[in-house]
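Much of what follows relies on a compact textual record of a protein's fold. Each token is a code from a learned vocabulary of local backbone shapes. The record below shows the convention in full.
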Amino acid sequence: MNMPPGSMSGSDGDGSMNSTSSMDMTMQMNFYWGKDVVVLFSGWPGNNLGMYILALCVVFVLGFGVEVLSVSPILKGGEKPMTSLFLQASVYAIRTGLAYLVMLSVMSYNLGVFIVAVAGHTAGFLLVKARALAASNRAVPMSSTPNNSKV
């Protein structure tokens, strides 16, 4: 079946878009500053500065959560290994979902969103590594005084 040129593309035949089929949606394809951004959902945060700050906080928490959940609990072969395996798989699924939400947020190409995403990942990484360092220092006590044994 032959169709006239432009009948499926929404153009009028002269190459211009007609008003009934065009969408007034533009996507930013480079980084920019500003509070007028769409993060994750259409219309959110809108043009309100307070909602933009809330969106930045949400992106920060998402990035932070990805890093905190990246520490896998050690599977123990106790009496219910399947429960432990299911728990670890559930944490992995949640972490992956959060990581994809951060990725989609950054794809808004807003520099503020990008900066808080990186800051959230960094803060989460610092918390995880600080806790690991503290745990290793508790496990291996360091002797600050030399051995004063006489030979």
In short: Residues 38-139 form one domain. The chain has a mean pLDDT of 80.
